[in-house]
């Protein structure tokens, strides 16, 4: 299972700032700057067609949780 | 241009030649060459003075000169706002029978009106949402300044929507996303989502062509703003596919930006909604550069919620939903995350099936007892207060089968699920 989860310990100062900023975040969509420039070609990196990873499935069955699950299922089977 | 008659003559020429830019300059509050203070000193035009101007635009001129006096002579922001409302109302009436050359002056006036409102709000924050029963220019009894502003912009929007010109390029509809973006923003501020949805309904109901969200769209900023608010309305109705489609269009338009660092804030707002919607509707995960560019998204999605979904960690996903409840509710993402639990369940089921196959005869790996899932769900939920029994597991499996997320059937008598041998867990997008 995930090991970098934020609830594993007391939130750091940076994490506290993030939670605060999320709670205080203004819902309003800011106006684009008046001098915003547009081009005729899309930025390939943020084009929705190429924004995604090929495969994100979790195939890791070697993590702590999987090992624990394997033990429990074996126990359960016997 | 230093006299009233010269000013009126310029106005008349701009109208006769349909010179959008010139008319915009002639009715803006801060015109070039210090003309604002000069115009504010003009005497009030009488009928004889106004005879030089097209009849429809005479009230516009009167309202404009009154506005300049409120700004430069009286220096009263509340009066300026009320006078600007009057100016836009008169402009709306004059624009009714004009072609789309009038769009630019009208859009600039609406923009300035919203800026004036912003200044007034900073100076008198408690008053802008308060009702104004004695307001001289209110459009309806007991309306707040914000409501009056929304009502005025709504009239400009209707003017654009109801233009029956079949040729989109010649129609006032060509700039409809500007008015839509402004209007939805105001309705969100007023927290009147029903009003915003009625605008969407009117838009859907039109039989006339609207500008397409493609590279030819001139005002991409307004279209993106509109699509953002429109997506939130879809999210509010749990229409996840529609919300996803709108945000995809918005991101596609944003990809035409020349320098994306200048619009990081707007991009982050879109991605906050777009990433979980894409995970849910398309089962797609963003490339790592997104997490590097947007640390907050990395924190709330990559390192926490998405990671829990990916690893099938039901307990931590529940923890996340609880911890960030106010944020998720504010962004209308709460129900989406409740639905994302399905994906979390699927990933936990996949893991269980795989390990179960490993420790049993792999030939029978498509038949898995409910008890195996009970073990894995309770293990995943070890720190949680709830526990899963076989009935609950059977129920979760039945729901996932009915949603098409699992291919197989339940055998209640044998206490097991029989999974499809070929595609037990079909891709979500199928």
From TrEMBL, chain A:
<comment type="function">
    <text>Component of the 26S proteasome, a multiprotein complex involved in the ATP-dependent degradation of ubiquitinated proteins.</text>
</comment>
<feature type="region of interest" description="Disordered">
    <location>
        <begin position="23"/>
        <end position="78"/>
    </location>
</feature>
<feature type="compositionally biased region" description="Acidic residues">
    <location>
        <begin position="51"/>
        <end position="65"/>
    </location>
</feature>
<protein>
    <recommendedName>
        <fullName>26S proteasome complex subunit SEM1</fullName>
    </recommendedName>
</protein>
<keyword id="KW-0647">Proteasome</keyword>
<dbReference type="Pfam" id="PF05160">
    <property type="entry name" value="DSS1_SEM1"/>
</dbReference>
<dbReference type="GO" id="GO:0000724">
    <property type="term" value="P:double-strand break repair via homologous recombination"/>
</dbReference>
<feature type="compositionally biased region" description="Acidic residues">
    <location>
        <begin position="23"/>
        <end position="33"/>
    </location>
</feature>
<dbReference type="InterPro" id="IPR007834">
    <property type="entry name" value="DSS1_SEM1"/>
</dbReference>
<dbReference type="GO" id="GO:0005634">
    <property type="term" value="C:nucleus"/>
</dbReference>
<dbReference type="GO" id="GO:0043248">
    <property type="term" value="P:proteasome assembly"/>
</dbReference>
<dbReference type="GO" id="GO:0008541">
    <property type="term" value="C:proteasome regulatory particle, lid subcomplex"/>
</dbReference>
<comment type="similarity">
    <text>Belongs to the DSS1/SEM1 family.</text>
</comment>
<keyword id="KW-0539">Nucleus</keyword>
<dbReference type="GO" id="GO:0006406">
    <property type="term" value="P:mRNA export from nucleus"/>
</dbReference>
TrEMBL record, chain B:
<protein>
    <recommendedName>
        <fullName>PCI domain-containing protein</fullName>
    </recommendedName>
</protein>
<dbReference type="GO" id="GO:0003723">
    <property type="term" value="F:RNA binding"/>
</dbReference>
<dbReference type="InterPro" id="IPR045114">
    <property type="entry name" value="Csn12-like"/>
</dbReference>
<dbReference type="InterPro" id="IPR036388">
    <property type="entry name" value="WH-like_DNA-bd_sf"/>
</dbReference>
<feature type="domain" description="PCI">
    <location>
        <begin position="224"/>
        <end position="424"/>
    </location>
</feature>
<dbReference type="InterPro" id="IPR000717">
    <property type="entry name" value="PCI_dom"/>
</dbReference>
<dbReference type="GO" id="GO:0003690">
    <property type="term" value="F:double-stranded DNA binding"/>
</dbReference>
<dbReference type="Pfam" id="PF01399">
    <property type="entry name" value="PCI"/>
</dbReference>
<comment type="similarity">
    <text>Belongs to the CSN12 family.</text>
</comment>
């Amino acid at each position: 299972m995930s090991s970098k989860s934020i609830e594993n310990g007391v939130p750091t100062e940076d994490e506290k700032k993030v939670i605060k900023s999320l709670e205080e975040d203004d819902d309003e969509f800011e106006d684009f700057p008046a001098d915003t420039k547009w081009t005729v070609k899309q930025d390939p990196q943020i084009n929705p067609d190429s924004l995604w990873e090929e495969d994100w499935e979790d195939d890791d069955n070697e993590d702590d949780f999987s090992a624990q699950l394997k033990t429990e299922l074996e126990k359960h089977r016997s | 241009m230093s006299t009233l008659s010269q000013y009126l003559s310029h106005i008349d020429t701009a109208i006769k030649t349909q010179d959008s830019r010139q008319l915009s300059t002639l009715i803006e509050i801060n015109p070039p060459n210090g003309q604002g203070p000069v115009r504010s000193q003009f005497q009030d035009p009488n009928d004889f003075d106004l005879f030089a101007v097209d009849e429809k635009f005479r009230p516009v001129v009167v309202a404009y000169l009154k506005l300049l006096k409120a700004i430069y002579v009286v220096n009263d922001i509340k009066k300026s706002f009320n006078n600007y409302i009057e100016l836009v109302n008169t402009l709306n009436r004059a624009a009714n029978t004009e072609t789309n050359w009038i769009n630019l002056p009208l859009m600039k006036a609406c923009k300035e009106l919203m800026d004036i409102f912003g200044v007034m709000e900073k100076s008198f924050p408690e008053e802008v949402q308060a009702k104004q029963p004695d307001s001289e220019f209110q459009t309806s009894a007991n309306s707040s300044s914000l409501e009056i502003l929304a009502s005025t912009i709504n009239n400009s929007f209707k003017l654009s929507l109801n233009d029956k010109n079949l040729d989109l390029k010649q129609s006032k509809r060509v700039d409809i996303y500007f008015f839509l973006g402004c209007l939805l923003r105001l309705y969100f501020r007023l927290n009147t989502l029903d009003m915003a949805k009625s605008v969407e309904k009117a838009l859907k109901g039109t039989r006339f062509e609207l500008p397409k969200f493609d590279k030819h769209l001139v005002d991409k900023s307004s279209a993106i703003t509109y699509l953002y608010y429109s997506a939130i309305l879809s999210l509010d109705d749990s229409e996840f596919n529609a919300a996803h489609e709108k945000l995809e269009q918005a991101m596609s338009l944003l990809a035409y930006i020349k320098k994306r660092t200048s619009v990081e804030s707007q991009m982050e707002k879109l991605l906050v909604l777009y990433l979980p919607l894409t995970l849910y509707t398309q089962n797609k995960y963003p490339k790592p550069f997104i997490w590097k560019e947007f640390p907050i998204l990395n924190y709330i999605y990559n390192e926490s919620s998405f990671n829990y979904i990916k690893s099938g960690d039901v307990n931590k996903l529940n923890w996340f939903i609880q911890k960030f409840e106010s944020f998720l509710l504010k962004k209308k993402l709460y129900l989406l995350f409740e639905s994302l639990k399905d994906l979390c369940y699927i990933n936990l089921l996949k893991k269980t099936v795989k390990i179960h196959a490993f420790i049993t005869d792999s030939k029978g790996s498509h038949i898995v007892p409910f008890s195996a899932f009970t073990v894995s769900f309770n293990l995943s939920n070890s720190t949680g207060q709830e526990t899963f029994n076989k009935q609950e597991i059977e129920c979760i499996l039945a729901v996932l089968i009915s949603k098409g997320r699992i291919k197989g059937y339940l055998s209640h008598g044998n206490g097991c699920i029989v999974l499809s041998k070929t595609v037990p867990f079909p891709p979500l997008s199928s």
